[in-house]
Design brief:
The protein is α+β, with helices and mostly antiparallel strands. The protein is 32% helix and 23% strand. Helix 7 packs antiparallel against helix 8.
Length: 326
């Protein structure tokens, strides 16, 4: 999600000793390798698709058995008080890195990632845009994942963060506005909200809300319009693109959203329409030439593919969605 600044430190302080105790109780065999095979990058799902050991984004999110074994982590999540999507413990081995990337898919368009460092040291640096911070143990951070970002663990020690995804309630975003915006070169603003210590409470039972509807069966044409027009405006703002190719791409975006709306008016979410939506998606011909977005210098074509084409139709969710229809 785009933020007005690269890094924001939220005013929560957690018990590092208790968090470390719960994290270190997990067996080494419970850590999953990164889905793209990045060296030293591992995770333990805490909230996942159907509560299973996976990296899925779409579908009902449930608390995993691992999270059930970690009472203070449950209390941490409950204290922030949001509805959570995919959430994990994320490990980064010594002298390893999270490669530079931008979060451009549909999931990230309206979600932010909260980082709570548990085991770390000052040689672990988080880069976003042209600035960086060290996230200290027990603190709580969010960052602008739309911009290019990476993590470097320049120590020989393992780093572990609790990482949770949320779209955020009005109260959450009010708190973001009252928090410390800490950047070296860009926006910098002191905190208004005082830090809140969240101690472990022995025997306390909490409730954790998890996403149930987080991707469309068939994306509504209004959302198609918003997602594609956002890309078109961002593309237009980049002065280095080939004007002719950029215009061709904009025309393709416009034709796609017009045709999607036409199909929706005929079929809506009904199964009869799915082959027609799929045919439209497959018919899109993307220009071979590189086109960049002004806001993050990322690829407009890759963003459209990840945010729209790969997310507009999810027939695997049909049992869940159709069960709610009268």
């Amino acid at each position: 999600m785009r933020l007005p600044t690269e890094f924001v430190r939220l005013p929560f302080r957690f018990d590092v000793e208790r968090l470390s105790q719960e994290v270190l109780a997990f067996d080494e065999s419970e850590w999953m390798p990164h889905p793209h095979g990045f060296e030293g990058n591992t995770s333990i799902p805490l909230i996942s698709l159907n509560g299973e050991m996976n990296d899925g984004f779409n579908g009902p999110m449930k608390v995993t058995e691992r999270l059930q074994r970690a009472p203070y982590i449950q209390q941490v999540l409950a204290s922030i008080g949001e509805v959570y999507g995919r959430s994990r413990l994320m490990g980064l081995g010594g002298n390893c890195a999270v490669p530079e990337h931008r979060d451009i898919n549909y999931h990230w368009y309206n979600r932010v990632r909260i980082h709570i460092p548990i085991i770390t040291n000052p040689e672990v640096l988080f880069y976003c845009g042209d600035t960086h911070v060290h996230m200290a143990a027990g603190e709580t951070w969010i960052f602008d994942s739309w911009k290019a970002h990476r993590v470097e663990n320049n120590s020989g020690e393992n780093r572990i963060h609790l990482v949770v995804d949320t779209a955020g309630s009005p109260g959450f975003w009010q708190l973001v506005g009252e928090s410390e915006w800490r950047c070296v070169r860009q926006t910098k603003k002191p905190a208004i909200a005082a830090d809140r210590a969240v101690p472990y409470k022995e025997g306390e039972s909490v409730s954790i809300l998890t996403e149930q509807y987080n991707a469309p069966l068939v994306m509504h044409p209004g959302e198609i319009d918003a997602l594609t027009q956002d890309i078109a405006l961002d593309l237009r703002a980049h002065r280095g693109n080939n004007p002719q190719i950029a215009m061709q791409f904009e025309v393709m975006l416009q034709n796609f959203r017009f045709e999607w709306r036409r199909l929706w008016s005929l079929y809506g979410q009904s199964e009869e329409g799915w082959p027609h939506y799929e045919k439209l998606i497959q018919s899109v011909r993307l220009p071979p030439e590189k086109l960049l977005l002004a806001s993050n210098q990322g690829s407009a074509i890759r963003t459209f593919t990840a945010r729209v084409l790969n997310a507009a139709l999810n027939v695997s969710l049909a049992p869940q969605y159709l069960a709610t229809l009268p």
